[in-house]
Structures are given as structure tokens and as C-alpha cells.
Specification:
Elements (H helix, E strand, L loop, with lengths): L17 H15 L8 H15 L4 H8 L2 H15 L10 H16 L4 E7 L5 H15 L5 E8 L2 H9 L1 E3 L8 H7 E4 L4 E4 L1 H4 L2 E5 L13 E6 L8 H12 L2 E9 L12 E3 L6 E5 L3
Parallel strand pairs: 1-2, 1-7, 2-6, 7-8
Antiparallel strand pairs: 3-5, 4-5, 8-10, 9-10
The chain binds S-adenosylmethionine.
Length: 287
């Protein structure tokens, strides 16, 4: 039954009992891979409480029921998952990984490849794929007739929608080169925002992909798979499983870049570690 907003303030955030916490932890891990530790229980309580208030519910069990109820539940889940995932990101996050991709793609193009195809996995609101796009656009200009393509995926539809819009506060561009700012962004009138130019935006394919369901993702034969700051929230066995699935989507010689320290004990007979400073990357053996 809907609760009038004035009757329930966030300060009285609802307490979740142990049984409820276990149920919510299991739901999230089962659907997204994300583990919510006991230390993050209050984050879960607050995020759920905010959403429950928006939909007029004041009981975790009733909200859980809503999420389980057919199509309405699926629609509600799409909103909730966005609230519960960590979407922090920035342009050119972790410079060494970008340098590695640049050098790798340069060599690949020099060696005769006609294009480089890149997959940004867990792209959040788009800063990562746009950074890759700016870099690859500059690089391929040095090789007339050669192309780049980027597919950028995430579980969160709201994050993907922001990524497709490509509108960011100017502050987010503070550390970006003036050349990139001038070439790829335009001011949004009467705001402190900028918008990514069509030239770049239209060349990225954004799509929803849950990394727990990679069997149904059509990507294959990729030159680069870029997956940073997503697997940190997952159990070790699950990380290894996902990284194995990702590796299988690489073209021979393809490169997989992960976040440093995100996967510690993984190996694959077709993959070898790339010894590039301050990165965690593997390349698929040729043949
Ligand atoms: C912290 S952001 C990282 C963004 C970017 N890769 C970076 O390094 O800046 C993590 C992203 O992973 C996404 N994510 C979480 N679970 C996911 C899943 N099971 N499948 C696909 N994406 C997921 C979140 O929605 C979020 O946008």
C-alpha cells in the first residue's frame, strides 16, 4: 500500500534483519555476480529504502515480492540494478592500460590488420569507450583506409542510456588533453556540460550484456577486450569463469586488459601474460 512521502523519512532507514539480508545478498549475487559484504549492508538498506519510497512500499519483503512478479518485476529490476551497482568511472581511467591498448593496436595495424575491434565490458556511463574511441580515432588516422570499431556493454540500462547521450559535466574533462576536448566535445548551451560529437558517438555500439550471461552475447573475434573495475565485486571462482569466457572471444593474437589485481590466480592454455608495466593483461596465442 503506497505510503505518503511525509510519513517516512530516510533518517528512519528501515532495518533489515539477517534473514532478509541473506535473501537480498543471494538475489544480487545470483543476478549480477556482485557480492554485498556485511560492511555494505547499510548501503543496501539505504539504496533499497530510497527506491521503495519512490514506489510507495515500506517493507523489504513486499518489495522483494514486487521484484519477483513477472514483467513488472523485470521492469523494476532494471531500475534497481542501476542503483545497486557501482558506476564510478572516468575518462582514460588507469592510463597505463590505455597506453598498452594504443601500442598493441599500433603494432596490429602496422602488421597489416585492416581494422581493430574493441569491446569495453562494464562500460558504465560511457567515459571508458569514448576514451578508447578518441585514442583509436587518432591512431587509425595514421593508417589511411584502416578502421576501428567499439562495442560497449553494461548490465545497467540507465547507465547505457547516459553513455549513448554522451553528456558530461565539464569537470569530468579536466585532465583531458585540449586537443581531445576541442575535437570531440561541444558545449551544451546554458549549462556547464559538454556533449560528445556525433562523429564519435555514432561509431560506438552500446548494448546491454550481463557478464553472467556471456553465452548469449554475440561478440567474437575481438582484437581487444577491456574490462576494468567490474570483476572486483565478484567471487574468485566467478571472476575466473568470466575471464575465461571473455578470453574465448578474442581473435588470435588479441589482447585482454583487466584491472590490476582483479584476477589473481587465472591462467588459460591459449593465453599468455603481457608484461606491460602497471597493467594486468593477457594476449591470445596465435594459431
Ligand atoms: C565501477 S564501473 C566500471 C566502469 C569502467 N569499466 C571503469 O573502469 O571506469 C562497473 C560497471 O560494471 C557494471 N556491472 C556490474 N555488474 C555487471 C554485470 N553482471 N554485467 C555487466 N556489467 C555489470 C555496472 O553497472 C557498472 O557500470
Amino acid at each position: 500500500m503506497p505510503v505518503p512521502a511525509h510519513k517516512w523519512s530516510m533518517k528512519e532507514s528501515l532495518k533489515m534483519d539477517d534473514e532478509q539480508f541473506i535473501l537480498w545478498q543471494a538475489l544480487l549475487e545470483d543476478r549480477t555476480g556482485m557480492q554485498i559484504s556485511a560492511q555494505r549492508k547499510s548501503f543496501l538498506e539505504t539504496s533499497l529504502a530510497i527506491r521503495m519510497r519512490e514506489v510507495g512500499l515500506q517493507d523489504y519483503d513486499a518489495y522483494y515480492e514486487k521484484l519477483m512478479s513477472g514483467l513488472t518485476g523485470e521492469v523494476e529490476w532494471a531500475t534497481l540494478v542501476d542503483r545497486l551497482t557501482v558506476q564510478e568511472t572516468s575518462f582514460f581511467r588507469h592510463t597505463s592500460s590505455f597506453e598498452l591498448v594504443h601500442n598493441y593496436c599500433d603494432t596490429r595495424l602496422k602488421d597489416g590488420a585492416t581494422s581493430v575491434d574493441v569491446w569495453s565490458v562494464g562500460c558504465s556511463t560511457g567515459e571508458e569507450p569514448y576514451s578508447l574511441a578518441m585514442m583509436l580515432n587518432g591512431l587509425t588516422e595514421e593508417y589511411p583506409g584502416k578502421y576501428w570499431g567499439i562495442t560497449a556493454t553494461d548490465i545497467s540500462l540507465p547507465a547505457l542510456s547516459k553513455a549513448r547521450q554522451g553528456i558530461y559535466s565539464k569537470r569530468k574533462l579536466d585532465l583531458m588533453s585540449d586537443e581531445y576536448k576541442a575535437r570531440y566535445f561541444s558545449d551544451v548551451p546554458e549549462s556547464r556540460k559538454v556533449q560528445v560529437n556525433r562523429e564519435l558517438k555514432d561509431r560506438i555500439c552500446f548494448a546491454q550484456v550481463n557478464v553472467l550471461e556471456l553465452e548469449s552475447a554475440p561478440m567474437a573475434g575481438l582484437d581487444v577486450i577491456f574490462c576494468q573495475n567490474l570483476l572486483i565485486y565478484f567471487r574468485r571462482w566467478r571472476k575466473r569463469d568470466i575471464v575465461t569466457h571473455l578470453a574465448e572471444r578474442l581473435a588470435p593474437g588479441g589482447l585482454m586488459v583487466l584491472g590490476i589485481g582483479e584476477v589473481l590466480d587465472w591462467s588459460h592454455p591459449d593465453m599468455e601474460r603481457v608484461p606491460y608495466e602497471n597493467t594486468l593483461a593477457f594476449a591470445r596465442r596465435n594459431g
